[in-house]
Specification:
globular, single chain
Length: 21
């Protein structure tokens, strides 16, 4: 996954990372 920091997901970065990981 690209660590851009901004995703088109309505969730905090922590939740996004948790979902990706």
């Amino acid at each position: 996954m690209e660590m851009s920091g901004e995703y088109k997901i309505p969730a905090p970065r922590e939740e996004v990372w948790a979902a990706l990981n």
